[in-house]
Q: What sequence folds into this?
């Protein structure tokens, strides 16, 4: 089936990204994997390519293209090569929407040029050690000083992707106690400078997968946050978080589809080269049937991913549609990658083969951005159940 989601500009960008990955990423990716993060300088290379500024208005140094399709191309190309760009996806997919939606003109002038240049990498700190999916249960507090010039931030966050390298972190904190009839009230968002006194990065977490993406614990002890770094209105943070979940879940859905597509490619290459009992693994009927079934599932996931992408770009992607796309595509990726690993035999269990890393990387897709169970709850609610 012919895809209609991408045009000539996107395909030209694909060629650029593919060449960049071959030259700058593939030769050193094993080193990054061992180190558990990309070098900070790598983000400056991405910035030079222009990938951070695609959706940023021209007045702040960006390209001013209001579309997620270039990001979609990057999902496909990184998965195809079996590599990742560290925490840079969080910078664009999670950081940028909050700046665009909530920042004042003065804040945009301060934040966006450095965002585009890679001078300031952004992350989002929502999850706490004891809260997980229950965002309203957060304990981190931000109290306004007596003279009204700054907030005093205290608390801790965990599972913060991009947290080691981040220069600014959007921190969710309680500025007021929850109301009896609305426990979501009282949360505010702050663009916190990570060089602030009292701000510290704790452990770089040892994860099952996504080894190249730095994920950290953060701690705040009497961190002074200027009132000029409050994002949006005080106490309305929960609604802001919900507003941007659709784009985040689209990103996970599209990334999962791209991973499934890559898994089929890796398996197809492997079974055509590997021989057993004097024949290639590809010549066995079971291999053909397994890969054919996987390809059919990938085709379906691609259609779901593309439809969600078009809806997102049109500003029409609903919470239920995003949840449906995430649920379906992450489940498809789970099944497909598992079956493709099986076709590798024992080598599929070795980290030197991209299918093994893909298997580990993929597992979190059904957890972060809202678990599969939360996705089902959202879909059921939209069905009136």
A:
């Amino acid at each position: 089936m012919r895809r209609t989601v991408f045009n000539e500009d996107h395909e030209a960008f694909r060629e650029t990204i593919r060449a960049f990955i071959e030259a700058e990423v593939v030769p050193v990716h094993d080193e990054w994997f061992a180190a558990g993060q990309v070098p900070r300088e790598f983000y400056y290379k991405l910035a030079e390519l222009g990938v951070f500024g695609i959706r940023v208005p021209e007045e702040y140094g960006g390209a001013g293209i209001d579309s997620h399709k270039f990001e979609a191309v990057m999902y496909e190309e990184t998965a195809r090569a079996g590599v990742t760009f560290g925490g840079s996806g969080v910078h664009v997919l999670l950081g940028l929407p909050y700046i665009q939606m909530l920042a004042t003109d003065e804040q945009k002038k301060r934040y966006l040029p450095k965002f585009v240049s890679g001078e300031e990498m952004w992350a989002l700190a929502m999850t706490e050690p004891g809260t997980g999916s229950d965002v309203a249960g957060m304990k981190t507090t931000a109290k306004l000083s007596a003279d009204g010039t700054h907030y005093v931030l205290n608390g801790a966050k965990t599972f913060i992707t991009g947290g080691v390298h981040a220069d600014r972190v959007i921190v969710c904190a309680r500025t007021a106690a929850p109301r009896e009839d609305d426990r979501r009230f009282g949360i505010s968002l702050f663009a916190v400078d990570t060089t602030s006194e009292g701000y510290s990065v704790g452990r770089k977490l040892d994860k099952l997968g996504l080894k190249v993406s730095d994920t950290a614990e953060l701690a705040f002890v009497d961190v002074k946050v200027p009132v000029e770094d409050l994002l949006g209105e005080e106490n309305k943070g929960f609604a802001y978080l919900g507003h941007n979940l659709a784009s985040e879940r689209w990103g996970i859905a599209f990334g999962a589809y791209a991973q499934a597509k890559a898994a089929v490619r890796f398996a197809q290459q492997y079974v055509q080269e590997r021989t057993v009992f004097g024949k290639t693994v590809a010549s066995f009927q079971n291999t053909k049937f397994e890969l054919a079934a996987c390809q059919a599932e990938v085709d379906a996931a691609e259609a779901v991913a593309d439809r969600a992408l078009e809806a997102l770009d049109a500003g029409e992607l609903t919470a239920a549609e995003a949840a449906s796309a995430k649920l379906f595509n992450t489940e498809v990726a789970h099944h497909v990658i598992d079956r493709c690993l099986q076709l590798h035999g024992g080598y599929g269990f070795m980290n030197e083969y991209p299918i093994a890393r893909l298997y580990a990387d993929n597992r979190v897709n059904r957890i972060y951005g809202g678990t599969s169970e939360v996705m089902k709850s959202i879909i059921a609610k939209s069905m009136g159940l």
